[in-house]
């Protein structure tokens, strides 16, 4: 029996709880809205229940073996994975092995994952997120006039380097880790702006506000660090860019702009490679 695939099976006989189909597959009454006849051939989706028994549904999901679609996260189980709804009674597990290493960027209830179905070593169905290769075959080529335009999309991959999204128009975008304040979750819907249209038709996207808007926010963040550190931080406009990025999650250029704003307002001063709160 090929579970996880939509297929046609013949009705063998009627029982109290429903029908028995070919290969002893059970079709329960609550999965039907009409009466069936012996030898009638119907289209069903077979899967295994919690007891390991093969049952079928006439509610045909858009996700099946080797077929991909978006599925909503309906439950999160730390240490195990997340469950998604593919449109049938049984919710499918996305294993911890197919989720980000850090649970802080796991999807939450309501997020959407682009998945197909596969099987674990015991033959049980799992939902498996699409690989980069699968997504690459499906995204559309982005037009050049998207530069500097607003864009919205869903995160389908996260990594230390950045996050990849599929936009609502089907374009692939990449958010470098320097172009975000916080790392978005896998499956999260994000809104940003296009900062580059690449030759291969993909996009570079930023979730950060424009420079003139972000400078005040960055300055407030530096002031907060100063107040939490008794009025002094071991940073200045000469500090290492990686140290700045690691502490403030902004580029050195953005850090220097924010420092300049604070110095102009006479809120800070610098000497001996440190910044002091006035």
From TrEMBL:
SUPFAM superfamilies, per database record: Nucleic acid-binding proteins (SSF50249)
Domain S1 motif: 148-208
Pfam families tied to this protein: CvfB_1st, CvfB_2nd, S1_2, WHD_CvfB
Domain of life: Bacteria
Family that this chain belongs to: Belongs to the CvfB family.
Name of the protein described by the UniProt record: S1 motif domain-containing protein
Organism per entry: Virgibacillus subterraneus
């Amino acid at each position: 029996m090929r579970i996880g695939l939509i297929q046609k099976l013949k009705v063998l006989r009627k029982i109290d709880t429903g029908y028995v189909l070919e290969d002893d597959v059970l079709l329960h009454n609550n999965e039907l809205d009409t009466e069936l006849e012996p030898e009638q051939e119907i289209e069903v989706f077979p899967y295994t229940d919690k007891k390991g028994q093969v049952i079928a549904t006439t509610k045909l999901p858009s996700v099946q073996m080797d077929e991909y679609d978006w599925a909503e996260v309906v439950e999160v189980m730390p240490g195990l994975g997340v469950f998604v709804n593919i449109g049938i009674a049984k919710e499918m597990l996305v294993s911890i092995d197919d989720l980000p290493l850090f649970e802080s960027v796991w999807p939450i209830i309501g997020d959407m994952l682009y998945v197909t179905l596969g099987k674990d070593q015991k033959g049980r169905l799992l939902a498996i997120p699409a690989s980069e290769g699968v997504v690459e075959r499906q995204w559309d080529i982005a037009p050049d006039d998207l530069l500097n335009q607003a864009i919205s999309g869903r995160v389908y991959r996260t990594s230390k380097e950045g996050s990849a999204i599929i936009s609502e128009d089907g374009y692939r975008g990449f958010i470098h880790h320097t172009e975000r304040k916080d790392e978005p979750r896998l499956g999260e819907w994000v809104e940003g702006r296009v900062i580059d249209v690449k030759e291969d038709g993909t996009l570079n996207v930023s979730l950060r506000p424009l420079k003139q808007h972000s400078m005040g926010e960055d300055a407030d963040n530096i002031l907060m660090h100063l107040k939490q550190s008794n009025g002094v931080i071991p940073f200045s406009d000469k500090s290492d860019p990686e140290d700045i990025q690691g502490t403030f999650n902004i580029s050195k250029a953005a850090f220097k702009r924010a420092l300049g704003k604070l110095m102009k307002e006479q809120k800070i001063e610098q000497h001996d490679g440190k910044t002091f709160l006035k």
